[in-house]
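REQUEST ID: PR-0412
SUBMITTED BY: lab tech R.K.
PRIORITY: routine
TASK: structure prediction, single protein chain
INPUT:
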Amino acid sequence: MNYREEMKQLRDTLNAHGYRYYVLDAPTIPDFEYDRMLRRLEDLEKEHPEEITPDSPTQRVGGRILAAFESVEHEVPLESLQDVFSPEEVNEFGTRMAESLHQVAYSVEPKVDGLSVALEYRDGIFVRGATRGDGRIGEDVTENLRTIKSIPMTLPEKLPHLIVRGEVYMSHRVFDELNAMREINGEPLFANPRNAAAGSLRQLDSKIAAQRRLDIQIFNLQLCQGRTFETHEQTLDYLRTQNFKVIAHRVVNSIAECNEEIVALNESREKFPFDMDGAVVKVNSLTDRKLLGSTAKSPRWAIAYKYPPEQKPSKVVNIVVQVGRTGVLTPKAIVEPVHLAGTTVTNATLHNQDYIAEKDIRVGDTVLVQKAGEIIPEIVSVDLSKRPFGTTPYVLPERCPVCGAPVSRDLDGAAVRCTGAECPAQLLRNLVHFVSRDAMDIEGVGPAVLQQMIETEMVRSPADLYYLREEDVANLERMGKKSARNAIEAIEKSKENDLSRLLYALGIRQVGAKAGHVLAAHFKSFEALSASGLDELTEIPDIGPITAQFILDWLGSAQSQHLIGRLKAAGVNMEYLEKQVNSNFEGMTFVLTGTLQKFTRQEAGKLVEERGGKAVSSVSKKTTYVVAGENAGAKLTKAQELGIPVLTENEFLEML
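STATUS: complete
OUTPUT:
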């Protein structure tokens, strides 16, 4: 491959990954790998400047503006920093500074791996916040930034105009809690805190952003009317007096001390609540910064040292299997202790069976362990030259290590799941689903209450809810007699629910609310469903062979039969309660978008289906109506482009 072909390939690859990173917030390669490719392209462009093209990622800061938010032109550009990857390059930066300046002091700070924003204040009042975007044009995310409690809405000193720059992030603790709840709810997990923070800050609904509990570190004063400062350190000290959460920093007087601080920050990563992917070195003097100026892309007075993925050898002592809240079996390698990125690592994720087989990881192997700023270390490779004699390939167990139920592999992925209806590892998730609105609809018994019930061993399966005593529930934290009485009454009332709700609540794979209704309407009773076979199930509309097999497997499980027996004994309804409703939506297809005031989109979809219509998630030429609530987005736009009739919520209510 000649240099022209290599440059084109690098440009295409980097642009594709840049789109996934900046626009979709869904990167598919580590930042370090992206930076390496970018450095290679920069080197080639220095050698062959005549081959530089306008679409080269080296010619722009990066990032496109999403249509969902209004554009904001930054009064002071939010520049990106020049990346360096070695102590030698830090020294080169120091040499350049020494050649231009007489005496140089530097500020060294951790580089937060989050989303950069500018916060603007007028007369001490927060008036606007915007993402960095391409450095010149960003996105107005003011309402979402207002939900970050560490951002002051008013400042002690009412300066005419103030703009600060910071990095929005999600703390490790919040990230773990958010993913735990998403796992309980059966939602896709966020890959890392950076993705979670970026996705949260770009939510159109500020309520969702508020639930994500984002945080911020302020690291630069962009503009200040009414005060003057001589150094960067003075600006940070001032911003701290204005109630900003300011980045930790250390001012040093030599480039050698900069390198020492870079190493120290890497070794102390674990003390920070956020992910950090490097260290920032800045000239401290503001006068010197003005003298040095900026290139077309970045300031000459600062660099970002990017930490490479730290890798060290270790030995696999054992492989253990954990069962997650969704029943997925996750293998984990127990390794001999090794110090990586400021922490002592004793285990590494193995992801799934395919990952183990691909790398052929075995107990006793010497492996290369990596922790590149991510929370969970992983095994990069196996040193086959050090493999002990007699080792055998590792295979996940055929039965759940927690409850002993058979496991099954997802047909559309690598996940292996426990099939036990009463598996203790899945209990919280199963209970949360069982009591949810579309399932048994038991109000007053949320995740926090259910967690307490599990911890006190009041419940070991969903059936135990129907055997609870009011006085025991009242003793739970933050419950009391009235709340306990309401919870018991809601549990008692749920016994009268239609069979369709129960079928959905049981958590049978691929049996959602709609399939539960179809099954209940066809069989009329749980007893009839239990006596069915594969042929009869697959003849039912919307029940394919895969779903049918999942149903039969669930019905045949000893744990499932035990659960159903106890629910029956408690008096839970097992019959279909036919409802007389009109069919005025027969043959119509509805798409619901935005926030509705009278009910949720799920509730509105159920009303459509009860009247003979279909509620689908995407707009097409076959769509009959789009019902648009507040903050309707791309679906509303597409409906308008296709000429699909759009109903307001009130117009939809009239049709109902």
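NOTES: The first helix runs from residue 3 to 23.
REVIEWED BY: pending
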